[in-house]
Amino acid sequence: MGFASIILLGTLLLTLPISNTTGKPLAFIDALFTATSATCVTGLVVQDTGTFFSTFGQVVIIMLIQVGGLGFMTMATLFALILKRRISLRDRLLLQEAMNQNTVEGIVRLIRKVLLFSLIIEGAAAVLLTIRWSMDMPFGQALYFGIFHAISMFNNAGFDLFGDFRSLTGYVYDPIVNFVVMFLIVSGGIGFIVLSDLVDFKKTRRISLHSKVVLSMTAFLIVFGAVVIFVFEYSNPRTLGSLNWGGKILGAFFQSVTPRTAGANTLDLGGMRQASQFFIIILMFIGASPGSTGGGIKTTTFTIIIGAVISMLRGRDDIVLFRYRLAQERIFKALTITLIALLLVMSVAMILSTTEDSSFLMILYETTSAFATVGLTMGLTTKLSLIGKILISLMMFAGRLGPLTMAYALGPKKGKELYRHPEGKIIIG
């Protein structure tokens, strides 16, 4: 309800004539789509952010991104702390669920860290981007661009102001823009729990199992993804084939990082080979990490699924990660999230294949991008029909909340089981 209220408020503001450069009210469905994309930190747009929306509209969008990225409960807690209002047990329990924590202990302290980390990282990145872009544009515009893109990229939203749906393709060779944006995407995508662990490491001298899994899987996906994209696109004249070695390496790594649910790109995504496009779909589906600004099934879920497969092949009963055994409940949760996500993506993709005049790969790419709140597109977003815009908006909303949150909110409340059925045998494989 919190996210829905923010989206509705953003929609109403974006429909105002002052929000765009035409001076006419924006169509309600387009305003709803944009507000949903911003609040759910996705980045899919039906109107170009840099040229269509006025400064007022762009400020509305970036505020929706900031609130949506940090989370409704986090922002509500911020206002409560500013007003010096007591955080009740009910509020702490809601925060525990919102931040995907196992306990309410230290939850308010974690929220303070979330706000502090966001301010420091976004501020530092804004300074670096402002300095870089002040070489290409007036300082005032560079400062505005630096702040906007720092907030957008840290929250994994992918909105940009460069116009004509170009994203960051004009900076494919630029190491400063590439490294700053990649750092923003990764730091926003690994989650605030991991950031807190890293900051406290000098004092505690330990990293939690969650942080170890997130950091190792994130590093693996980025390096492996960059290698795959480099190999598949090396000779493609529409992407890496036209670049020198430095551009090829930067381009491959950036396109490997951005499916972490960021939505920015430095290469022509529609010009990629189908193998690369399908591989990016897989990366988008995996997404970022729990407690972050990103979406997808999450890196920890993917790790547990891979661990379960390896354990089964080795004939072992337990999944062991970094010398820790995982509880069976974690495995069931990972399988449930993955299956619900697959069913949701496939169902919507099948419906869109009948309402939209595009290839199934393009539709699957768009649907996965919406569910994982990534924002990457092969060019379908601006061509969506009314039904397509509604379905993609619902996918962005469901992806930001998470499949389990939706299932718990809409499903029947569980009661106490008074008995267990006898164990049965079924043949598998």
From TrEMBL:
Source organism: Paenibacillus glacialis
Alphabetized InterPro entries for the sequence: Cat_transpt (IPR003445), TrkH (IPR004772)
Main location: membrane
Entry annotated with the keyword Cell division: no
Assigned GO CC terms: plasma membrane
rRNA-binding keyword on record: no
Localisation per UniProt entry: Cell membrane
Top-level taxonomic group: Bacteria
UniProtKB keywords: Cell membrane, Ion transport, Membrane, Potassium, Potassium transport, Transmembrane, Transmembrane helix, Transport
Membrane-protein topology: Multi-pass membrane protein
Name by which UniProt lists this protein: Trk family potassium uptake protein
Transmembrane segments annotated in the record for this chain: 59-83, 114-135, 176-201, 213-232, 278-310, 331-352, 358-378, 390-410
Molecular function as annotated in GO: potassium:chloride symporter activity
